[in-house]
Amino acid sequence: MNNTISDVVVKTMDGKDKKLGEYIGKVLLIVNVASYCGYTPQYVGLEKLYQNYKQAGLRILGFPCNDFGEQEPGSNEEIVDFCTRNYGVTFELFDKLHAKGEEQHPLYARLTTSIEPKGPIAWNFEKFLINQHGEVVARFKSSVKPNSPELISAIERELAQ
């Protein structure tokens, strides 16, 4: 089974294709984000994680998703404005995609079958940790905060490789 994401192509906020293989050599934290969710304040912690570890090679990739309670209804421009204005987000945000269902993006098809617990995304702000080789190495539920010891230790472990 292929548990790497390097061959997956996503769209940037301005509609350009980007192959995730461009991030080889970096540790990635991939998060399905939403502007009107109870977990939306996690943007603060995600940005802090990014600021603390970007020099070491961490990249946080936010993928807006409207699949859960229609909590991300905005356009790409509205999403970027909201995240920047309210949370000072500087990590990369991508084009809105589907994390589940018939229109599930290939990225989430790969993420949800590559690591235990396998299965569909349960809600917004679920997190996947990708090592420097593009392999999915950990999955964290929405309730795991960006400053949680389990997430930080997993990130630090991968950055030390």
UniProtKB/TrEMBL annotation:
GO biological process: cellular response to oxidative stress
Stored PROSITE patterns: GLUTATHIONE_PEROXID_1 (PS00460), GLUTATHIONE_PEROXID_3 (PS51355)
Catalytic residue list: 37
Superkingdom to which the source organism belongs: Bacteria
Pfam families named in the record: GSHPx
SUPFAM superfamilies in the record: Thioredoxin-like
Keywords for this protein: Oxidoreductase, Peroxidase
GO molecular function list: peroxidase activity
Family: Belongs to the glutathione peroxidase family.
Protein name stated in the entry: Glutathione peroxidase
